[in-house]
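Friendly challenge for the regulars: who can give me the structure tokens for this chain first? No prize, just bragging rights.
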Amino acid sequence: MLFDLPNHNELYQALLKRDPRFDGQTYVAVLTTGVFCRLTCPARKPKPENCTFYSTVAECIEAGFRPCNRCHPLRPNASADPSIGMLLQALKERPEHRWREGDIEKMGFDLSTVRRSFKRQYGMTFLEMARQRRLRDGFEALSDGGRVIDAQMDARFESASAFRLAFAGILGCPPGHLKPNAVMLADWVTTPLGDMIAVCSASHLHLLEFVERRALQREVAVLAKLCKGDLGVGKTPSSVQIQGELKAFFNGTSAEFKTPLAFGGTPFYRQVWEALRGIPPGTTRSYAELAKTIGRPTAMRAVARANGANPLALVVPCHRVIGADGSLTGYGGGLWRKQRLLEIERLYSPPKPATAP
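First reply, four minutes later:
Bragging rights claimed.
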């Protein structure tokens, strides 16, 4: 454990004072309501004998408590480090600015500390986040039918070559190679765990990946070959539907994805991916259990490869597969995302059977 909890009385006093020093490092679970909260929660304070303190969200959920609807303890905790909140606010107020390390230092923050804080909280540095948001603006300008030069200006890149390189770093090709009214369209999807790219035809979702994942370029290239290069940027009914379903998922209202999916891959891979979709939210399986599910109990390594090759993150829930010893094991989107997804999905856990009196 990275943070040793003080005694119960000290933590209760911190709860009464809404002490921000404990935010993101300690949570209070209330026995009388079955809810857990941040220590800064504005809700009415419970009696001390009804409070239990935990150091992680996972421990609260494991103990059977549900997250508070006022302080939202499952949301990324920008206030856990003051630099995060201040820099995010600065980014919001100056979206047109091309942020550099010198800007962070001028605000009085240590570069290495800020880098670690953002990597721990969001899986990327502040500068990477700022650059990604600028690129998203350019992507959306193209999606709305704008010219490449207009998209470059919207993204606030100083040169056309820099914009083309940044764009190609995501989709594997410069924006000038994309076609209007194409068979498949790439759309930018914003989620609380980071931006994603969805590639859809008019009727199906073919790809859903986090923007910074290394496999994204290769997966887009496979789709581009499949549609003979007829790839563009824009929205389809499928991309609109999946964005709505992702919003409901992260809001805690639904873990059901009904967007029609188009599976590529080998028959074996498709068999594994369908088995993944059969794992209920809030539960996990080991690779061995997944292999048994498809009738191939000795094919654990092949199942692991198929799991890693999944091009439809979240909707084909490869994050629900863990090691036999309960460890998170690998995840293409980053272990920090896998942990967050599993924590969120405890909201959707199947009810436990009632025990006999």
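The longest strand covers residues 184-189. The chain has 14 helices and ten strands. Your move, everyone else.
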